[in-house]
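RETRY 2/3 - previous attempt timed out on the joint model. Re-submitting the same 773-residue input unchanged.
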Amino acid sequence: MPLDVPTVSYTLPDGVDPPSLLAYLDKRFPVIAEPGASRSYTVLDSADRRLRAAGVDLDLETGRSGPRLVLREPGGRAPLVAEVRRPRRSRYLLRDLPAGPLRERLAPIVEMRALLPLASVQVGAQLVRVLDAEDKTVARVSLASPMALGGSGEAGAVPLTPRVDVSGVLGYPKPLGRVTAAVRRGPKGGLIDARISLADEAIAAMGGDPEGIRTKVRVDLRPDQRTDRAAVAVLCDLAGMVEANLPGTLADLDTEFLHDLRVAVRRSRSVLRELKGAFPPEPLAAQRDALRWIQAVTGPTRDLDVQLLDWDHLVSGIPSERHAALAPVRALLVRHRAAAFRALRRELRGSAYREAWDGYRAFLAGDLGPTRDRPDAEQPIVEVAGRRIRKVYRRMLAMGAAIDATSPAADLHELRKRGKELRYLLELFDGLWPRAVVKPMVRSLKELQDVLGIHQDREVQASYLRGLAGELASSTGGPAALLALGVLVDRLDAEQHDARDAFSERFAAFAAADQQALVAKVFS
Amino acid sequence: MKVVATYNIKGGVGKTSAAVNLAALAAHDGLRTLLWDLDPQGAASYLFRVRPKVKGGGGKLVRGRSDVTDLLRGTDVEGLDLLPADFSYRHMDLALDATGKPTRRLRKVIAPLAEHYDLAMLDCPPSISLVSESVFDAADTLLVPLIPSTLTVRTFAQLGEFVAGEVDRRPQIVAFFSMVDGRKRLHRDVVATLPATNPDDMVQTAIPAATEVELMGVERSPVVVSAPHSRAARAYRSLWDEVRPRLGL
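RETRY 2/3 succeeded.
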């Protein structure tokens, strides 16, 4: 049951300023111009702009009793507001926000991501109320002259496009129609629908990317493009993602900077491995070693992040009377995570990382040399990538078919690793084949990978938790914690068991005869 | 959604003034606020310049035959919407009596609005009737304006007894002094003593008898909007600041 009241945003055409638009409206409607008001706020969103993708605006402004968050949704309904403390370390995590409707609305959108200040905006606005015969407000027009504020306040301000927002009032749809029709007609040829939001414009004015840090590769590939050039283009895009996520990783703003950095590195390693015939063997081996080293030094922190992100889910499945006894376990995980992160930061700030990354970037930017020892370099990417997809798919079929109830966990892990290779190939080069083919294949692969992922995560988590036993035994509350830890590990084992039970069905869908035929046909 | 009803068995004690001003202040504070003008006289609807008319009338509304979202009207105060009065509300007792479980009907009418509003303020007609009982059932809090006099104090005590004895789903009661004339000794004495003896049920803020409040009918706007720096507006702000935590908002 929506209570939407639309707001339509326009930009002013050349030669029309807010006073002339006000005069134009005044001739056509009974209006009252409120005194001009100025509002300053900071645009908040996650680094990957989840709120923007959900069509939600979140501002941090100073209210009567201190800072407050204001969440606006399309439809012009009254915003959700929550009073907050000043952000610590320039970010808000969900746990920093007071319980209430605003946090509930944000939770499924931002999940574990931090809300970060992306731009500061100052808006001088004139509000015009359009009245009916009873002098009641039946539509509102806001004439805004916004500025994006740099670090030095108004001195570094960048004027943004003046905007006109026409908003309806609940229960009065007709006046809104009349006002929007009037402003579209004139003055000077009419107002133009705003194509970009004020937040996006402010972020761009301050040198940011309104789309945030991407996780999807965006490279235009042609099927007949040389494989080495196509691979380098994809690798450069992925390298940009690593660099974009590095500052947030080092500042430890949220867990997903490190996650996305590691995914970009892993995808890069996949490209180097699967398209190795496009690169000179010796420098390639050195670069693969460099990327493997980055994965290795960031791995322990990520493993512990997964433990802590999963904690509430895992604990929810064990009897509540055991929860208090588990507090030392969680405290230990937090301590281990802090130590792992310190080691990670030392490595990623150190000269070894700088040299490794500079060397990798130089490798991508440099001349790859003669093609005699790079047999795939000049081949069309569609052929080389297609060949690799077929091969990895076939390999997965063989590996999966050999897995039975007695297979060790390592076999499922190996299959998962091949699955990641296949998924990256499909996703990174998906523009080369019809989406109608790639998408269902990725979906069935993803469903298989989900099961394999749970299986492996639970294996790693259970093994790690078992390893804590010695440390726990000597701590306060240790014996009770050890007993509760046993229950927790049992739960992990049970989930791993469930994942293995689900494997056969998922693998059967992935390996279905029609899918095999499709892979053979499309990627040949 | 918290439901608050301004209620007193007597008329002319400042129920509507409190309802419109507190609702406006709640909206200013960013709460998504609904004001339901239950009084067939339609004073709150008049103040917000909204036609006191509900399609299908009060009978259809309490029988659940109207889509309540179609009846809402935005006001001049951003964030504050109104469910208008209708002259047919004068027969609401009869309409409620014709339904099953009449005392639960008003709660049922506003239930679908819970996802859209943080606060629903019910401005009640003066009476003690089936409508009042249905309001008591719907409300989390009864906000009771009291004119400081011996008789009013007695009426307030009767209300407490009635709610405690007759109402299944008991709302909390929060009373405040209204239309206080500081020149009258009785007013001064009652205001000075009663809150101290009823700290759970009464707040400290007293709303003065003020010309600006009377002028709301001329301005057709809450005093906190038309004269935000006036003594009366400051008193309503203080009342809201004191009441809000008790509402859990």
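DSSP finds 16 helices and eleven strands in chain A. Closing ticket.
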